[in-house]
Amino acid sequence: MSQSDAPILDAIVRIDRLPASGRSVKVATDTQKRAELAQILKVDAVEVFDANLTVTPLRGGIRALGHLSARVVQSSVVSFEPVYQDIEEAIDRVFLPQDTEKVATPGSEVFVDLEDDDFPDHIDGPEVDLSALLLETIGLAIDPYPRRPGESVESLGLNVDGEASGPFAALTKLKKSTDIDQ
């Protein structure tokens, strides 16, 4: 495996080697890994990224329970100044092998309860890579429209009342006044 093929986060768990009492998975990142995360997440920087999970066997699969802490830097959507966001997210996810007896045949109806919070993820094989779970968790927690406190378009002094301004605004007013005269 080359350097470029290496996973960004080392969070692979072998189900067949997991003790009955479970095990801890700690993910801490160095500067290079945080730079790669920032590129994947499309943010300016990831200053902190730590995750602590307890992985226990559950019905032929696993349950990952823990916490993710991160600090990301993004550009404000208003002023483009840096905005810092501290992220603290609880993680509780179940991964189960796909039940081959309950696989739907083509043309049959399948009921899926999308409101069910405990809807498990399916796995095939003896390994579960929890890095996708961690990336998903931080990705969903990042503010898509970051702003500094008290920042708004109005605070920039821009005309937001709907009236046109600028060199063509005067021409528009002239055109409207000549239309009325005719």
UniProtKB/TrEMBL annotation:
InterPro entries: YceD
Domain of life, source organism: Bacteria
UniProt name for this protein: DUF177 domain-containing protein
Organism of provenance: Devosia litorisediminis
